Automatic annotation (TrEMBL):
Residues 123-168 are annotated as: Disordered. A zinc finger (C3H1-type) spans 71-99. This is C3H1-type domain-containing protein. It comes from the Eukaryota. Residues 123-132 have a biased composition (Low complexity). One of its GO terms (molecular function) is zinc ion binding. GO terms for cellular component: U12-type spliceosomal complex. Keywords: Metal-binding, Zinc, Zinc-finger. It comes from Absidia repens. Residues 133-143 have a biased composition (Basic and acidic residues). Coiled coil: none annotated.
């Protein structure tokens, strides 16, 4: 290959890199970015990391009881039952829930307990912000009082006049003359 061709191709390559710099695909599920092209997208979308993240993303919106049932219905993970540890945690194709030999009660693995704990926390936060919103909308409205016809605010005795503006006065829950 002639030398100039090599230079041209590296220059072109650089140019393409510059032009494609902004064309970045972002995966919200994985919170990662990669240069946007069909190969990368396919590679990403069919990659185990993305598939697991996506599953986890959707699992998060499941009812906790459904999620637990799903975990219980998986075939038993031999690795976990044998060693008490399996790196795949909630992503494992197999189940990590043990049954207590005496009581028959399920024993949840740590990752499931963590999941449930995080879920409860999120629910509590949502309930809190919800009740906060209700409180805010319930805040007493400020009332408007109608003056008898012909009456003007400036003619009222000082005790009935609104406090002068600009002075440190709490104007919430204050009635005004309409
Ligand atoms: Zn992804
Ligand atoms: Zn496992």
């Amino acid at each position: 290959m002639p030398k100039c061709n090599v230079i041209l191709s590296t220059q072109l390559h650089g140019l393409i890199q510059i032009f494609s710099f902004d064309l970045v695909d972002h995966c919200d599920v994985c919170d990662c970015a990669f240069p946007d092209n069909a190969t990368n997208r396919r590679k990403h979308n069919f990659g185990l990391v993305h598939i697991n993240n996506k599953k986890r993303h959707y699992d998060w919106f499941k009812d906790p009881n459904d999620f637990i049932n799903e975990q219980m219905n998986k075939p038993v993970c031999r690795r976990y039952m044998h060693s008490g540890y399996c790196e795949y945690k909630l992503d494992c194709r197999y189940g990590h829930i043990k049954l207590d030999k005496k009581t028959g009660n399920p024993i949840f693995p740590e990752e499931l307990l963590e999941w449930l704990h995080a879920k409860t926390l999120e629910q509590q936060q949502q309930e809190q912000s919800h009740s906060q919103q209700i409180k805010e909308t319930k805040r007493e409205p400020s009332y408007k009082y109608k003056l008898p016809s012909g009456w003007k605010v400036k003619d009222l005795p000082p005790s009935l006049k609104p406090p002068p503006l600009g002075q440190d006065y709490d104007w919430s829950r204050v009635g005004t003359w309409g």
